[in-house]
Structure formats: C-alpha cells, structure tokens
Write a structure and sequence with these properties.
Helices cover about 30% and strands about 25% of the residues. It is built from six helices and nine strands, in the order αβββββααααββββα.
C-alpha cells in the first residue's frame, strides 16, 4: 500500500521514477537488548548498487507509462497465481463472490490440509495492493484462516475465476494537478449472521486516483448500543 501511495504522489508531482537494486542484507527479528558489532574487514564492497533504469516492475507491481498518467497492475502475479492453482480449465466469472452465498464457520467439512487455503488467501491479500475490487471478499475469506472448510476453499476459487476474467485490471494515476482529497465510507450493517458484526470499508482518492483503501470488522451492533447508553 505504501508503494501505491508513493507512486500516486510521484505521478501528481511529475517526478521521474527510477529503480536501484542494492545488494544488502536485512536482518529481521525482535531484539530485546542492544547489539553492537565490530565491522569485519572487507565488509564494504564497491559497485553493489545496480541501476535498473526507469521503474517498470517492483515487488510484483507492473508500471506502465501513458501520456496522461501511469497504470499500475499485478497482471504477472495474477497469471502466476491462476497457473499455480490450476484454474486454466475453469470458466471465468463476473463477480468476486456469489451474492447469494453466506459463508459460515461450520457449514461444511474441515479441510484435511488447510495450508493450501491459507496460502491462496495470503496471495489474494497481496493482490489487493492493486485490485480494490476483491478487497471486501478477501477480507471475508481471511476470517476463516484458523479452521478453513470446503465451502471456504470453494469461495476462494470463485475469486480466482473472477480474476481470470480480467487479470490485467489496473489502477490509473492521473498526472494532472488535482490534489483534492476525497474519502468514501460504507458498511454492510451487521450482515454476518453468526457474529452480527459489520464490515466497514473506506477509500481515499487523490484527485481521481485511489491512494488508500481498507476493510475491517466492526463491533456487534448491540455492543455499540450498550456503549452509547453507558456513555
């Protein structure tokens, strides 16, 4: 998401975007105390930065330059995802999820191996960096990561078949000077039949270009009413 915001701002400013490949080691982990080390001889090596030229592909995001702006997409990532989960034999669909389907936590048999479902939903979540149209549905599927069932996996494959219909769908950033910020918000108002929680979502636009969006679960309606009465 940060990458999308940076690209959107750069396009508005008319800045050129370039990519450098830096040969560097990143240490990940939680440190509970300060660590100091003596730099070993020969650690610094020259010519470890490679100039890749103008930005065209970065972290799975493809960048295509137009006269009036920039297109960003994850077409290659989408095609690789469809191939990995063997969706070539399936027809494409016109909606991310069946509108008549209401997923539940215990409505079908448990998956024998849940890792396949978790991997698929994780990759779909990464795809929401440019595919706003599946954000709500991926958020819904993410609620069943602990104990996924056959119906949940079927719904996840439904999203894949939807992506197959247009894997190159993109976000367009206009290069005009419209810096106006607009935000839109909506909620499904306790649509979950089990928890009575609402899913709230928002999108923020810089000019006519999306720069931020998200969905999250809200507390149950009766909890909000109780909280208001106490206050």
């Amino acid at each position: 998401m940060t990458t999308v915001r940076v690209i959107g701002t750069d396009v508005k400013k008319g800045w050129q975007m370039f990519q450098l490949d830096v040969n560097y080691a990143f240490l990940h982990g939680d440190l509970h105390k300060e660590v100091y080390m003596e730099v070993p001889q020969g650690l610094v090596v020259d010519k470890q930065i490679k100039d890749l030229g103008r930005l065209h592909y970065f972290l799975g995001i493809e960048v295509l330059y137009k006269e009036d702006g920039v297109l960003i997409s994850q077409r290659k990532f989408t095609m690789d995802l469809l191939k990995e989960f063997e969706c070539a034999q399936y027809s494409s669909l016109t909606s991310p999820l069946d509108p008549s389907t209401k997923l539940k936590a215990d409505e079908s048999p448990l998956l024998i191996d849940p890792s396949n479902y978790r991997k698929l939903v994780g990759k779909l979540n990464f795809l929401t960096n440019t595919r706003l149209d599946i954000s709500y549905n991926v958020q819904h599927l993410s609620q069943y990561m602990q104990s996924p069932r056959e119906s949940h996996l079927k719904a996840a494959y439904h999203v894949l078949r939807y992506l197959k219909g247009d894997p190159s769908l993109s976000i367009f950033f206009f290069n005009n000077k419209d810096y106006g910020i607009r935000a839109f918000y909506d909620s499904d108002w306790a649509a979950c039949p089990e928890t009575r929680k609402s899913v709230s979502g928002y999108i923020m636009l810089l000019g006519n270009s999306p720069i931020s969006w998200n969905q999250r679960n809200s507390p149950p309606y009766h909890y909000l009413q109780l909280k208001r009465s106490i206050e």
